[in-house]
Design a protein that fits this description.
It holds the Pfam family PUNUT. This is Probable purine permease. It comes from Ilex paraguariensis. The protein contains 14 helices and no strands. The relative contact order is 0.20. The chain is globular. Helices cover 79% and strands 0% of the residues. The longest helix is centred in the last third of the chain and has 42 residues. It is mainly α.
């Protein structure tokens, strides 16, 4: 995979994308749950909002385009888009899968408390690791295995207190179905992350961050297309005005919630594929999993969900796993740089 980004710039981009992913991963579920808590009940609409903010990606793409025009000796040589047909088709396929994953996830959030749905989504890390091994031959170190183990144990600890959190007025059947749909969402997105990495590897073109933005836009466009069909079949567009009038926080705040949801979810998807570009799908999965306790704490603050001792233990385990992974990466890069220096010295002596 040819990447036209310096090592230092890639590190900066990785940090930025980690921050973007953190905002989207914690804020997305909270604002989606806010919609359901205060009277919203349109699952296809919620899934549409997960990727419906894709036009916002046009802003940085246009900025980059006009920058290229200003710096090129001939404005005519500045390309508007860099994606080749092969990469476009692959991104479209991933986008269609993402659209179905959006629906599965939104259905789970509609039926489960944030603490429970976040817990189930944490199992995504195991799916990501497995599919990364199969699709992109991901190599595991003792540190990355330790991180996966600790994050998985943290999720298991949280499971100790999910038996009595069924929302009032919800049937056992709806609760169980929400549970199953969320597991399916975790499994599917655990497949999508390595698939994006594989797409980069097989693209047969240089992958720059501008191309990453284009991939994000195409993926979200086709995911939104899937959800738009679902909304049409479910008559969601006709119900929006009525739902806005009946929304618990008021009609104006209803539309504010929808717009903010679309923007925040773009942070999540852009951050996820940005981390894959800068590092790997496994790291993207680990960051998503390690943010689980943060989402739990925010749910306690904003929605008054209970914070048992198990959640505190899960927080410690998650942070431990996060530190373990990055310590392993630090040691690996230090060893790699040391070997490179020794090779250069050997070549110099030989000459």
């Amino acid at each position: 995979m040819e990447v036209l980004v310096s090592s230092r710039m890639k590190t900066i981009l990785l940090i930025i994308n980690c921050i973007i992913l953190s905002i989207g991963n914690s804020g997305g579920p909270l604002i989606m749950r806010l919609y359901f808590i205060h009277g919203g009940d349109r699952v296809w609409l919620s899934s549409w909002l997960e990727t419906g903010g894709w036009p916002f990606i046009l802003i940085p793409l246009l900025v980059a385009y006009f920058h290229r025009r200003a710096t090129k000796s001939s404005a005519a040589t500045a390309k508007l888009f860099f994606m080749k047909p092969r990469l476009f088709i692959a991104s479209a396929v991933v986008g269609l899968l993402t659209g179905f994953d959006d629906y599965l996830y939104a259905y789970g959030v509609a039926r489960l408390p944030i603490s429970t749905s976040a817990l189930i989504i944490a199992t995504q890390l195991a799916f990501t690791a497995g599919f990364a091994f199969l699709l992109v031959k991901q190599k595991f170190t003792s540190y990355s295995i330790n991180a996966i183990f600790l994050l998985s144990v943290g999720a298991a600890v949280l499971a100790l207190h999910t038996s009595g959190d069924r929302p009032k007025g919800e049937s056992n059947r709806e609760y169980v179905l929400g549970f199953v749909m969320t597991v399916a969402a975790a499994a599917l997105y655990g497949f999508i992350l390595p698939l994006v990495e594989l797409t980069y590897m097989k693209a047969k073109q240089a992958i720059t961050y501008t191309v990453v933005l284009e991939v994000q836009m195409v993926m979200c466009f086709f995911a939104t297309l899937v959800c738009t069909v679902g909304m049409l079949l479910n008559n969601d567009f006709k119900a929006i005005s009525r739902e806005a009038r009946e929304f618990g926080l008021g009609e104006t705040k209803y539309y504010v919630v929808l717009v903010c949801s679309g923007i925040i979810w773009q942070f999540f998807f852009l951050g996820a594929i940005g981390v894959i570009f800068c590092a790997s799908s496994l790291l993207s999965g680990i960051i998503i999993a390690v943010l689980l306790p943060a989402t739990e704490v925010l749910a306690v603050i904003f929605y008054q969900e209970k914070f048992q001792a198990e959640k505190g233990v899960a927080l410690v385990l998650s942070l431990w796993g996060f530190v373990s992974y990055f310590y392993g990466e630090f040691k690996y890069m230090k060893k790699k740089n040391s070997e490179a220096t020794e090779t250069e010295m050997t070549d110099a002596v030989a000459q």
